[in-house]
Design a protein that fits this description.
single chain; 451 residues; alpha/beta; two-stranded parallel sheet; 16 helices; 14% strand; elongated
């Protein structure tokens, strides 16, 4: 293990501005109470002054000191309340600006700009604070192993050209950029280029286009099992290292509802042109071209073969290329994806609050960190969504992308006690109410020549 575990809500800023404003209101309330206490002491002193006997028993300096102290505390409360309100406005401004940044051209909410303008005009400090927060995120989003993508560039640059599809299974146009920056700042150059191209983040409602490539899917086994108990157990269920690429667990719930969990593996073959649907061609089609891939179609066929119908509840656990597939499943909305756990995924989907999005990412992973652009500037998914990050210190080029490393990260997250992690485990535990459980492993193949 290397590096400290960090669990965040994702995005540039993860703050409940409503709660901040409630805190400001309570601080202001304390200030008013202190002012009222000072006024009460002042009135008591005035009452005492009407009696010479009582006045003689009171040192006039003591109540004056108490009134001054209470007034000072009240003023500090007012200042603190004002400061917290400014912070809430700044955080909201950052959030709104992030949403605007992620809007599709022509699809912006007309009220969004008006609210942004109102916040910016409310106090000049708000705009300055928001700019500082965004600049801080832009800087910290590159906090990774500074050699991760440089090492990738060093390996990829000699094979640019005919062999580039083999060496770089994801983004061919980006490889030249990475190689060009290998000598200096490649890691920031590459992540910035991903961000510029907009491929690391899936906009709301993103869809894969084009006809589905030919692919066949066959059930090759499976044993009944309940829901995974924690993140590590879910990662272990990925069909990594087996002949299957997809596992689907069907849960028949009381009352007749059917729910599903699908576990999707990552790239099996970096080259294209073979019978393996989980290849470099599928990566390229989904990541850079936003076109339907053979692997994506295979997962849809596996779900259908297990009895899943459009609108059914599905929980997704997905690794690497599987993260691409699972993210598009959640974004497209054919199924009601209630939770999405991605492991080293090259993208981050922007989802509504109906999906709990959980992401395991390594800062020194050139796929999960580099190709995703280290996430989006805005929040995604339900309020329980979270991102787990750490540095692995792996020496190999793709060592930090290895499933064993991510299994260790999942184990650390399980032991963290974080309530968002517990919320996901509690959601999975609901499946224990099932009256029948069926697990199926699926093997997919495509015609030689690939997609």
């Amino acid at each position: 293990m290397s590096g400290d575990l960090e669990i965040t809500s994702g995005g540039a800023i993860a703050v409940d501005t409503g709660a901040m404003r409630e805190v400001a209101s309570r601080i202001a309330g304390v200030g008013r109470t202190l002012t009222e206490a000072a006024d009460a002491i002042r009135r008591a002193c005035e009452a005492l002054s009407t009696s010479a006997a009582l006045s003689a028993r009171v040192d006039p300096g003591e109540p004056a000191a108490a009134i001054a102290a209470l007034g000072d505390l009240a003023a500090r409360c007012d200042a603190d309340a004002h400061g917290v309100r400014l912070m809430a406005d700044a955080f909201e401004l950052v959030d709104l600006a992030a949403r605007q940044r992620m809007e599709e051209p022509g699809g912006a909410d007309p009220g969004l700009q008006a609210r942004i303008d109102a916040l910016a005009a409310s106090d000049p400090t708000v705009g300055r604070m928001a700019a500082h927060l965004m600049a801080q995120w832009e800087e910290q989003r590159f906090d990774a192993d500074p050699l991760a993508l440089r090492r990738a560039a060093a390996e990829w640059s000699p094979v640019l050209g005919p062999g580039v599809a083999v060496a770089g299974a994801y983004l061919l146009p980006l490889l030249a950029t990475v190689a060009a920056g290998a000598a200096f700042g490649a890691e920031r150059w590459a992540i910035g280029e991903v961000d510029h191209r907009g491929r690391g983040v899936l906009a709301p409602g993103s869809r894969l286009e084009g006809p589905a490539p030919a692919v066949s899917v066959q059930r090759i086994g499976g044993t009944a099992a309940g829901a995974p108990r924690d993140l590590a157990a879910a990662v272990r269920r990925l069909p990594y290292g087996s002949s299957a690429q997809v596992r689907v667990d069907r849960f028949a719930m009381p009352g007749g509802e059917q729910r599903f969990m699908v576990f999707i593996d990552g790239t099996r073959q970096r080259a294209g042109g073979t019978s393996e649907p989980w290849d470099g061609n599928s990566n390229l089609r989904m990541y850079d071209q936003r076109r339907t891939s053979a692997s994506y179609e295979a997962v849809r066929k596996a779900l259908a073969a297990s009895g899943a119908e459009p609108g059914d509840a599905v929980d997704v656990v997905a690794y690497s290329q599987g993260g691409l597939i699972g993210s598009f499943l959640a974004a497209e909305g054919e199924y009601r994806v209630e939770s999405l756990l991605t492991v080293g995924s090259p993208v981050e989907p922007q989802l509504d609050d109906g999906t709990q999005l959980a992401q395991l990412r390594h800062r020194d992973d050139p796929v999960g960190n580099g190709l995703s652009g280290n996430g989006s500037p805005g929040l995604s998914g339900s309020s329980d969504s979270f991102t787990v990050r750490r540095d692995t210190g792996a020496a190999d080029l793709f060592g930090a992308h290895g499933l064993d490393e991510y299994l260790e990260t999942a184990t650390l997250a399980d032991a963290s006690g974080d309530p968002r992690v517990e919320a996901l485990r509690a959601h999975w535990r609901e499946l224990d109410r099932a009256v029948e459980v069926e697990s199926s492993l699926y093997r997919a193949e495509q015609p030689e020549g690939g997609s």
